[in-house]
Amino acid sequence: MSIYTAIIDSPLGLMQIEADDQALLAVRFADARAHAHAGNAVTALAAEELAEYFAGTRHEFSVPLAPRGTPFQQRVWSALGDIPYGRTTTYQQIAIGLDQPQGAQAVGLANGSNPIAVIIPCHRVIAADGKLTGYAGGLERKAWLLRHEGALLV
């Protein structure tokens, strides 16, 4: 299986997109311009949709996804995909929705392991007290994304 990589500029800095022949595997914030292998149709679609998202014209993504993780992580990431644009939820609410009412911490760990930033919207999950917590891309990026979506009032 071939892995294709593209690097894009975004308002939040460089982002690295990884895909196989069928679906998107990862979107990560990159600190420096990494070596990008030849992209493919999936990386091109992801780059186009991310550009539209950052321009404010896209609220949902259609690029096919194939994040790699445990069955529990997959369930959490699927639940993240159900959080509407411009809305937030809590780790506890996701845990309850997964019939794991004591699982907020496990949800937080799975959320932090999300390999597809922005498109799987882990940035829309906040602490029960409304505070911004835990974002692999940094809390300033999480705050920016929520403001961009109109979910966070300054």
Secondary-structure-derived class = alpha+beta
Low-confidence stretches: none
Which shape, going by the Cα principal axes?
globular
Strand order of the largest sheet: 1-2-3
Write down the overall mean pLDDT.
92
Task: Output the helix-strand order.
Answer: EEEHHEHHEH
Main sheet properties? 3 strands, antiparallel
The number of E-state strands comes to 5
Number of helices: 5
Q: Give the helix proportion (percent range).
A: 25-40%
Report the end-to-end length measured between terminal Cα atoms: 45 Å
How much is the radius of gyration in Å?
15 Å
- Strand residue percentage: 15-25%
How would you describe the overall organization of this protein?
With 154 residues, the chain is an alpha+beta fold. 33% of the residues lie in helices and 16% in strands. The protein is built from five helices and five strands. It has helices spanning 41-55, 71-80, 91-97, 104-112, 139-148, and strands at 4-10, 13-19, 24-30, 89-90, 125-126. β1 and β2 (13-19) form a beta hairpin. α3 (91-97) packs across α4.
